[in-house]
Specification:
Layout (H helix, E strand, L loop, with lengths): L1 H6 L20 E3 L3 H8 L1 H21 L8 H4 L2 E3 L1
Antiparallel strand pairs: 1-2
Helix pairs in contact: 2-3
Length: about 80
């Protein structure tokens, strides 16, 4: 599934597509007080910090053969991992 997400992140699996899952762990993240951070330090620095934060998350998830299920394009600064 991780490989599918990496190669075809904009595609969806058909409902009848067989897949198997041995174990599932979900993690939900959200940057607490991100609006205040953007207002306090400015758009560019806050955006850089948020991108770095989520980059580190993606790297950690990839090391565990995980995948990002929903990303910033759909949820602002929240993630479903």
């Amino acid at each position: 599934m991780s490989e599918f997400r990496a190669l075809f992140s904009e595609e969806l699996l058909a409902p009848d597509t067989p897949i198997s899952v041995g174990a599932v762990t979900l993690m939900f993240t959200d940057l607490k007080a991100s609006t205040a951070m953007y207002e306090e330090i400015g758009e560019a620095p806050a955006y850089a910090l948020a991108r770095r934060h989520f980059s580190l998350l993606r790297e950690s998830i990839a090391k565990c053969d995980g995948t990002v299920v929903k990303d910033h394009r759909r949820f602002g600064d929240a993630r479903v991992l």
